[in-house]
Amino acid sequence: MLLAGHVAPAAAQYAAGPTITLEAASDERRRGLSWSDGDPVLRGSVSVPVAPGLSLDGAATTLWGSDRHGGADAVLDLGGTYARQLGGLRLTAEGRYHIFPGAADSGDGWGYGEMGAIAGFSLGPASLDLGARYAPRQSGIGGDNLYLSSSAAVGIPGTPLTVSGHVGRSSGGTRDPLRAARLRPAGDYWDHGVALDWYRGRWSAGLRYADTDIDAPDSAHAGATLIARVGLTL
What we know:
Elements: H1 10-16, E1 19-25, E2 29-30, E3 33-34, E4 41-51, E5 54-66, E6 72-86, E7 89-99, E8 112-123, E9 126-138, E10 143-155, E11 161-171, H2 177-180, E12 189-200, E13 203-212, E14 225-233
């Protein structure tokens, strides 16, 4: 999500053509919560520019029978992103729908949609992003969900390394406590993390530390962890 705000000027994005990324990671953790029950995952994503600043995006990630998402074997993230560069200010709007193949059929589905906006600022090799993402009230998540975040990144001069960090707050209303626990297992909570990433040509790798303020016994798959990843961009 941090990198989603680091967009190039719209015309350059459009000229770049489709981008495909393949990745392996030791865990699929979003907003401090493990979606893969702590198991390693494989991920493939594609971004296709369709107009200056506008792209259609899709990603598929293995979940291996995730308890958090009704036994789903995978999650598909489908949507679009619109980005504008105004001097040193980056503005991004996005919409996503999350589909969970293999999830138990309860009659009303496990999928849900959300929308978001990011404002980013750059100063030399450093950047700061402020984001808000909102999922309106849906049966799949037992209510609604708001995620506010701030993140920062800096490239280490003379190296292929980038250091980044973030802090986020998840909140929302609850109508079905069991479904709401998918995104907020103990009610409203904070998450935070830091990462070190290496980029060399089409290859990348990284280590990320992630944690939340969720206390035991609700901390299953929400406690402190170190995640490793390696990726290839085509």
